[in-house]
Write a structure and sequence with these properties.
The protein has an eight-stranded mixed beta sheet. A two-stranded antiparallel sheet has the order 1-2. α5 runs antiparallel to α10. The chain is of the alpha+beta class and about 425 residues long. This is Amidase domain-containing protein.
Length: about 425
C-alpha cells in the first residue's frame, strides 16, 4: 500500500484484481498480491483485495472499493471486516474505471458497522456534477418497513455447498457458524421463512455466462483497442473488426491470462444475443422478485469457503485457465446488483480446523492442501466467517440498523485482533 501523509492523515492506494475481474484477490500484475490478515497463505478475496486486507490488518480506519459482482463483500468476509454495498446509483461513480458501468457500485470497508454507515452516508450525500453520472438514480418511493419483527430467508441446503479442500472439518465449521448467525437474526426479532433461491442463482450465472460480460470489454475498450491501432490493426469502429479484436484479447500480454480469457469470451456474443439475454433476465428477474417479496431480508454466507493462494494459482496459471474456485465465491454475490439490491457484510464467527487431520476418504485436493500448509507453517488454521444481509434497493438505512444488531450479538470486532486470533505470516509473505 502506497501512502501520502498530510496533517496526520494517511491516504493510501491499494492493490486489486486487474480491471476488477475477480473475487480472489490474486489476479494482479503487481506482486505480491494482498493476502488474508489472518493467515498469509490464504487469499484476501477481491476484487477490492488491498482495501479489505488493509482494514482487516488494522492499517486503516476505512478504505474504498467497488462492487459489481461481490468485490466489496467477499474480501470483507475473508478479511474479517465490514463491507457496505449501497444501492446501485445511490453513490456517484464518476472517476471510477468501469468494470460493468451499469452495475458498478462504490463500497466502503471499515472496522465497524457504525463507521461504515458514517462513511457511506457521506459518500451518498456527495453529488456528482450535473450530467456526468449517467447511472446515478433517484430513490424509488419509500416502502413500508417492519417496525417490529421482520421476515428473513436463508439459502436451502442444496445451495449451501460448503465442500472444499478443507474437508469435512471446515465444511462443518462453516455450516455451524452460519446456523449461529441465523439464530442471532431470530433473536433480533426475525421470523425465518422459505424462499426459493434457484431463480436468484440463475440470475447470478448470467453475469459471466451470457452477453452481459461484454460490458467488461466495453468499459476498457479504448485501452484494449489502442494497442491494435498502434500495430496497424483494423479500425475497431467496423463491426467485423471489433468482433475480431475482442477475440484477439486472449493474446494481449498486458492482461493476465485469466483476465484475457474472461474478456476474450465476449467475442462469441452478437448484438442479437444481448437482447435475447435481456429477455431471459426479465423472466428470471420476475421470478426472483416474486420470491424476494416473501422476505424483508436475505441472510447468506459472504463466502462459502477459504482458498489458499496456491490453490487459486493452481487453477488459473494453466495455459487455458479455469476459475471454478473464483466462481464459487460469487454464488451469493453475483445476483445482487442485477436484482437491484443493497447489502452489508459483517463478521460473524471463526472457523478452525487442522488440515493434517485427514479423513480416510480425503480427496487429492485435501491432501495437497495439507502438504502445502505443513511445508509453509502450522496445519492448524483459524479463519474468519462472515455473513451478508441483503434487501431490496433503497432499504440501506434499515439494513444497516439490522447489521449493527447482528454485529453486537456476534461480539466480534475487526481483523485477527477483533476475532481473538493470532495471525500467521509465512516467510514468503514477509
Amino acid at each position: 500500500m502506497n501512502t501520502l501523509l498530510s496533517g496526520g492523515i494517511a491516504v493510501g492506494k491499494t492493490n486489486m484484481d486487474q480491471f476488477a475481474a475477480g473475487l480472489v484477490g490474486t489476479r494482479t500484475p503487481s506482486s505480491p498480491c494482498p493476502v488474508s490478515p489472518f493467515d498469509s497463505r490464504f487469499i484476501s478475496g477481491g476484487s477490492s483485495s488491498g482495501s479489505a486486507a488493509a482494514v482487516g490488518a488494522g492499517l486503516l480506519s476505512f478504505a474504498l472499493g467497488t462492487d459489481t459482482a461481490g468485490s466489496g463483500r467477499v474480501p470483507a468476509g475473508l478479511c474479517g471486516c465490514v463491507g457496505v454495498k449501497p444501492t446501485v446509483g445511490s453513490v456517484s461513480t464518476v472517476g471510477v474505471v468501469p468494470a460493468c458501468a451499469s452495475l458498478d457500485c462504490l463500497t466502503v470497508f471499515t472496522a465497524s458497522v457504525a463507521d461504515g454507515v458514517e462513511v457511506a452516508r457521506i459518500m451518498r450525500s456527495a453529488a456528482a456534477p450535473p450530467g456526468t453520472d449517467v447511472w446515478r438514480r433517484q430513490p424509488s418511493p419509500a416502502e413500508p418497513l417492519p417496525e417490529a419483527g421482520f421476515r428473513f430467508a436463508v439459502p436451502s441446503r442444496e445451495h449451501l455447498d460448503w465442500d472444499g479442500p478443507g474437508g469435512e472439518a471446515l465444511s462443518s465449521a462453516c455450516a455451524a457458524a452460519f446456523e449461529a448467525a441465523a439464530a442471532r437474526l431470530t433473536e433480533a426479532g426475525g421470523v425465518r421463512v422459505e424462499v426459493d433461491f434457484a431463480p436468484l442463482l440463475a440470475v447470478a450465472a448470467m453475469l459471466y455466462g451470457t452477453s452481459f460480460v461484454a460490458e467488461r470489454y466495453s468499459g476498457i475498450r479504448a485501452f484494449l483497442e489502442r494497442k491494435a491501432a498502434a500495430n496497424g490493426g483494423a479500425p475497431a469502429a467496423k463491426p467485423a473488426a471489433a468482433l475480431e479484436h475482442q477475440g484477439q484479447v486472449v493474446d494481449d500480454e498486458r492482461l493476465l491470462p485469466v483476465t484475457r480469457h474472461i474478456i476474450a469470451g465476449t467475442a462469441k456474443f452478437t448484438a442479437a444475443d444481448v437482447f435475447d439475454h435481456q429477455a431471459q433476465l426479465a423472466v428470471l428477474r420476475a421470478r426472483a422478485l416474486d420470491e424476494l417479496s416473501r422476505a424483508d431480508v436475505l441472510l447468506v454466507p459472504t463466502a462459502l469457503t477459504h482458498w489458499t493462494v496456491a490453490e487459486v494459482a493452481e487453477e488459473e496459471a494453466a495455459p487455458t485457465p479455469t476459475w471454478s474456485r473464483n466462481a464459487k465465491l460469487g454464488r451469493f454475490t453475483n445476483f445482487v446488483n442485477l436484482l437491484d439490491m443493497c447489502g452489508i457484510a459483517v463478521p460473524s464467527g471463526i472457523v478452525s480446523y487442522d488440515a493434517a487431520a485427514l479423513s480416510e476418504g480425503a480427496s487429492e485436493a485435501e491432501r495437497r492442501r495439507a502438504a502445502h500448509l505443513a511445508a509453509t507453517g502450522p496445519t492448524q488454521v483459524t479463519l474468519p466467517f462472515g455473513v451478508t444481509l441483503l434487501s431490496r434497493a433503497w432499504r440501506d438505512d434499515w439494513l444497516w440498523g439490522l447489521a449493527a444488531r447482528m454485529e453486537a450479538a456476534a461480539g466480534l470486532r475487526c481483523g485477527p485482533a477483533g476475532h481473538g486470533v493470532t495471525p500467521f505470516v509465512s516467510e514468503q509473505a514477509q
